[in-house]
Amino acid sequence: MGQLVLAAKVTHVPSLMLSELSGSPLRDARAPAVSSLRELGRRARERGVTCFVVFDTHWLSNFGYHINANARHRGSFTSHEAPQMIQDLRYDLPGDTRLAEAIAARAGDAGLNVIAHQVASLGLEYGTIVPMHYMNPDGFAKVVSVASPLFTSFEESRLLGEATRRAIDESGERVAILASGSLSHRLWPNKKLGPEAWTSVASEFNRQVDLRVLELWQSRRYREFLDMLPDYATKCNGEGGMADTIMLFAALGWYDYRGAAEQLCDYFPSSGSGQVNVEFHVEA
């Protein structure tokens, strides 16, 4: 039988990569986020994680749910939206075809349209690549990337999260699930994308709701959070409809989840959005 041994909500903002450049003014601002991603990678390795399943809100699909089931993920990535921040970023990671296909099969059992693809030219998006750059740099664990559909429902995303957990439990893998995306996601308009945009949230309302969400998590008041999640995703401009967060909590057990939320870095803004790294502890 398989086991879920790590679960986390993580950031994937491209400014993490920009902060690595020599002399970058973002180096200090992004250092806590970078170090906490590396810490999650250390914990994953320590717990014997064999596969990362990444719910990627930067792999957005207009048509149904898709899973990258390639046996190997290999390429050189340049971001189409921010090539000045992520360019020629090489990755070479093992995939997990069997688990990817099992997730699709269990989702199909629940009536969802989910396709697991083995297409050599299907690369990873940066919602997967950036966290893996810090957490899995040497490819010690396999990677399955799951897209976030634009035209879906809250309930469908919940069903896919539940299907993912069933597939994990039936596998022989020790799995880490990552919800890769922001908290609130209202970005600054182009005319305001100056240096101050890297360290400010575009909406004070969104910032306040993000902080309240973190309080609820730290107090394990997950039922209250889940009941507000549909409005939170809509009113705070959720990235990919916050599908990653819906799927994460569904995989954790939804209302039945009782574990501790460990915030690994301070809440921080990026281009107007709200970001954080949080581990949701699961029973060993």
UniProtKB/TrEMBL annotation:
<feature type="domain" description="Extradiol ring-cleavage dioxygenase class III enzyme subunit B">
    <location>
        <begin position="7"/>
        <end position="280"/>
    </location>
</feature>
<dbReference type="InterPro" id="IPR004183">
    <property type="entry name" value="Xdiol_dOase_suB"/>
</dbReference>
<dbReference type="GO" id="GO:0008198">
    <property type="term" value="F:ferrous iron binding"/>
</dbReference>
<keyword id="KW-0223">Dioxygenase</keyword>
<protein>
    <submittedName>
        <fullName>3,4-dihydroxyphenylacetate 2,3-dioxygenase</fullName>
    </submittedName>
</protein>
<keyword id="KW-0560">Oxidoreductase</keyword>
<dbReference type="InterPro" id="IPR011984">
    <property type="entry name" value="HPCD"/>
</dbReference>
<dbReference type="Pfam" id="PF02900">
    <property type="entry name" value="LigB"/>
</dbReference>
<dbReference type="GO" id="GO:0008687">
    <property type="term" value="F:3,4-dihydroxyphenylacetate 2,3-dioxygenase activity"/>
</dbReference>
